[in-house]
Design goal:
With 425 residues, the chain is α+β, with helices and mostly antiparallel strands. It contains 14 helices and 21 strands. A 6-stranded antiparallel barrel has the order 12-15-14-13-16-17. Strands 6-2-1-10-21 form a 5-stranded parallel β-sheet, with helices on one face. A 3-stranded antiparallel β-sheet has the order 3-5-4.
């Protein structure tokens, strides 16, 4: 096997991991990472509030696949090759131990993203991988260069350079294989050269965002958080449960952000205008809460409603619900009228809020959309249209909910692309 030249386009998690994995297989190969900006691993740096949410403690592949609104079927073959346990083992082998938080998110034990960045940079240095900043790719041309078939044994055989990559400073870089790992696309037109090569791109739209509401009564409770609520986009069957946070612009917290991933394309289509439905007490339905209310009246009959909140909801939120049902905080539980009771139950299990717009986390920007998955071979990450062209990370039409799932896809796809490129004859 001759010495090969590999170019990885994109200096993020997927790009670095892929380059390192190729170098681990072939330390003598010439490997370059092209990054269009002056910053590398920028998402790694800011992820998880600067702690880097490396992956999620989810050893069960079938369970892991349920965390990807788009691309789950495609990832099935991939995760059976390299998944969470492999990520943990690779980082451990390279001096980085991870710890698991109670919600399953995994961080370096240092709780500092610089630990992950240093690990990746040390490997790049160890394998002498070239990192070229300010190298934006503007064109890639497939070359059909044949090796000299008549070369005899005494002649040095030069391997074919399959691709000519033109970067923004008008220089051309040649490569035997390419791994595209440029992260989430902002718009399909950013990759015209990919379209010229015959690939289709699913128009990218934002994923992982919070909801803006025009209801000023609820936003007056900004800062109030509920440990477990369920949230749904009206008209969509998907219900997300988890912590919810009221902000000065609307609704945030893990449950809201996860829901945004599941409804990303649908919400983009209506310009982020519609309604969300919140159940603040998701262990109850309207019917079961009505039944439970009989016990509340018996247990708390002489207590004032403002002082006794049986759901462990924040006091400000409980008082907000009482006010919405026109219930005086000094009213005794036993004296609650059935009409007021019904309104209160409705607010608890089905608060409907008008949504108008979204707020996106600029640092942790995630898109759904990207290169069409039916044009990529899932077991190798190689283009079905252009042999030698591979993909890794978010530039494919794959995205996960918040919690380390997008990074896990980056490590997995980067590793698989590297294994396949490493087998080149």
């Amino acid at each position: 096997m001759g010495k090969k030249k590999i170019v990885v386009i994109g200096g993020g998690a997927a790009g670095f991991f892929s380059a390192i994995q190729i170098a681990e297989l072939h330390p003598d190969w010439e490997i370059s990472i092209l990054e269009k900006t002056t910053k590398i691993l920028s998402k790694v740096k800011v992820s998880g509030g600067g702690r880097c949410n490396v992956t999620h403690a989810c050893p069960d592949v079938e369970l892991l696949l349920k965390k990807y609104p788009r691309g789950a079927r495609f990832l099935k073959k991939a995760f059976y090759q390299f998944a969470t346990k492999n990520t943990i083992a690779w980082f451990a082998k390279n001096g980085v131990s991870l710890h698991t938080e109670k919600d399953g998110r995994m961080f370096p034990t240092t709780n500092n993203s610089e630990t992950i960045i240093e690990c990746l940079l040390n490997k790049v240095k160890e394998y002498k991988i070239q990192v070229l900043l300010n190298h934006e790719v503007v064109d890639v041309v497939k070359q059909n260069v044949q090796d000299d078939a008549n070369a005899n044994a005494s002649t040095t055989i030069h391997t074919s350079q399959r691709f000519a990559i033109t970067v923004s400073n008008n220089t051309t870089i040649h490569a035997d294989a390419i791994c595209m790992a440029t992260g989430g696309m902002l718009k399909a037109s950013s990759f015209e050269w990919l379209i010229r090569l015959g690939h289709s791109i699913v128009e990218p739209v934002p994923s992982l965002f919070t909801f803006n509401t025009s209801d000023k009564t609820i936003t007056s409770l900004m800062g109030v958080a509920v440990d477990n609520a369920s949230i749904q986009w009206a008209g969509n069957k998907h219900i997300e449960k988890g912590p919810l946070l009221i902000t000065h612009w609307g609704m945030s917290g893990p449950a809201a952000i996860k829901l945004s991933a599941w409804c990303a394309r649908e919400m983009a289509a209506v310009n982020y205008e519609g309604q969300i439905i919140i159940n603040w007490v998701p262990t109850y339905t309207e019917q079961s809460l009505k039944m439970e209310w009989i016990n509340f009246r018996l247990d708390f009959g002489k207590r004032e409603m403002g002082s006794k909140n049986p759901f462990n909801l924040p006091n400000r939120l409980w008082h907000y619900f009482l006010q919405a049902a026109a219930i005086n905080t000094s009213l005794k539980w036993a004296d609650l009228k059935s009409t007021q009771q019904q309104i209160l139950i409705q607010h608890l299990v089905r608060t409907t809020l008008p949504i108008k717009g979204k707020t996106t986390f600029k640092e942790e920007f995630v898109t759904c959309g990207g290169v069409e998955l039916n044009e990529i071979e899932a077991s190798t990450m190689e283009s079905k249209l252009i042999p030698g062209l591979h993909f890794a990370g978010e530039m494919m039409d794959v995205d996960g909910i918040t919690g380390g799932f997008n990074f896990q896809h980056a490590w997995t796809s980067g590793w698989i692309a590297a294994q396949h490129m490493g087998q080149m004859a």
